[in-house]
Specification:
Helix 4 runs parallel beside helix 6. Helices cover about 75% and strands about 0% of the residues.
Length: about 130
Amino acid sequence: MLLALELIGGLDQVWLPKRWQKLSLPDKLQGSTLPFLIRNMRKVEKYSRPRLGGLFKNTVVVRLIGLLILIFTLFAFVAPPFSGLDTLPALGVVLVSLAMIMDDFSLLLIGLLIGSIGVGLVIGAGQIVIKLFS
């Protein structure tokens, strides 16, 4: 959420608190999770290419993307625990972030679609839970 707020604020460089800058990644994350993520990112890179890359240079668009990332992150955070409903909004954030890195507008659209579906599922599940307890 901090990075999304930085995008919304228009910062050019990532700012992290000094305490966070000194942290290192755990060995388990470096040994198993990062190689898994890198393998899957390479699969996405095969199909990704710069499409409408200039769009990602527009400050208004970048701020709107930051707002969408904040919304998706918030919904992933408030999703019921152990329900799996946080997966789609989080995946939307990942794909939108990759789209910004790779300047790929079609990847941005896919990320927005998946994240929006996830937000809809979280809202729908919330309504069902509220009706059950009413």
